[in-house]
Amino acid sequence: MKEANDRRARPESASVLVVDDEDDIRELIELSLLRLGVACDTAASLGQARDMLAQRSYRLCLTDMRLGDGDGLELVAHIQAHHPGLPVAIISAYGSMETAIRALKLGAFDFVTKPIELKELRELVKHALKLAPASAPVATEEVGARELIGHSPAIVQLRSQIGKLARSQAPVFIHGESGTGKEVIARLIHKLGPRAAGPFIPVNCGAIPADLMESEFFGYQKGSFSGAVAAKEGLFHAAHGGTLFLDEVAELPLAMQVKLLRVIQERSVRPIGAQVEEPVDVRILSASHRDLGQWVAEGRFRQDLFFRVNVITLHVPPLRERGEDVVELAGHILRRLAERDGGVPRRLGAEAKTCLLRHSFPGNVRELENLLERACALSDSEVIEACDVDLQAADGLTTTWLEGDLMRDVADPECGPLDDDERSRVLRMLADTRWNRSEAARRLGLTLRQLRYRLHKWGIE
What we know:
The chain has helices at residues 2-8, 23-35, 46-55, 72-82, 97-106, 118-129, 153-165, 182-192, 213-218, 235-238, 254-266, 292-297, 303-309, 325-341, 350-358, 364-378, 401-411, 423-432, 437-444, 448-457, and strands at residues 16-19, 40-43, 60-64, 66-67, 70-71, 88-92, 110-113, 172-175, 200-204, 219-220, 232-233, 243-247, 268-269, 278-279, 283-288, 312-315, 347-348, 383-384. By secondary structure, the chain is an alpha/beta fold. The chain folds into four domains: 2-129, 3-Layer(aba) Sandwich (Rossmann fold), CATH 3.40.50.2300; 143-315, Rossmann fold (3-Layer(aba) Sandwich); 319-394, Helicase, Ruva Protein, domain 3; 401-457, Orthogonal Bundle (Arc Repressor Mutant, subunit A), CATH 1.10.10. The strands form six sheets. The protein has a five-stranded parallel sheet, sandwiched between helices. A five-stranded parallel sheet has the order 9-12-15-8-16. Strand 6, helix 5 and strand 7 form a beta-alpha-beta unit. Helix 18 crosses helix 19. The termini are far apart.
């Protein structure tokens, strides 16, 4: 048996290290990997695994939780300290939510329970081997340089964190004020990770009516309820092999939080009307400007779901903490506006730069974009001067400026009259556009202001 193992796991070809103290389990995993065309080395103890890691490089480490001379978490910590960048996955018959969270917080790539199915093992190995070799890490300054503009210490640190999180399958909670670019960061984590070739499905949890949530997330079969004339794929199925981004996850109703927790734990969904659950391979990223810990204390968010989606927290700095990034970001926005409109890029005058640097930007990057777009529309010069930068409109705003903006829309007569008969038409269009309000408004022939007014009147936030 030893000679057969040596032939199958030649040093020049093995890319996976399997660590388990049971001979039959090591053999089973090794044979399963060979069927996938992946050669591996095996170790029966924590000490043997450390020795093998010191002698050669691997692309992935699969380790059992309980070993004769230690446990898998010790190996995760050892790899993080001595072989950073090497993905390590925990495979255990003693799986629990607490153990999984501990492993992921320590830096584990993923966590699965025995008996592991070949399909699940195949997906895990496929995603891990898509990562760049641990010996060739991406330079921190190159991570997201086009998406995250700026060189402030806060943004440099954020790029570094994103680069590390992209190499994991751990759920990440992105916390930051409104307008800081949380979806941009989620897309960047997806883009830099092993799921980049898969779909990225964003969903605004606060925009889906409670009575439509289950069908939107899990899908349904034909005839499962009145009006289900054809089967529909849910968001989890749409994100299979990729990433599902739950924006404003704090807005999920408690009843939906229970169902979402089960899907995350079991990695399977049951469409409405189906008799069995269907496996899904999805990484969960979530975001909110709310303090989830406070919401848990108030009973508005389930504690068990909080720990599951909040395995790793990524804080997004507000624009006011990014110093000179404001000017660099403004230049990037002006060039993008010029490309969109087919004109010559505007530039900021010295006094305009000073005005921007002094402003606190409660609306963050989104406010800066709106401010510059208004300045370009009103100015006839190629130089944006201080008089073109209207900061008075932002006076008195707080970090909840969008909520105040919504209330102004409701009171504005130009939003137009409310037609009670169009509710179903609007909801269908929102469902067709995956709740992209701008696109739905365009297709409906409404302004975004008018659509927001209707959603507010219907109690759909």
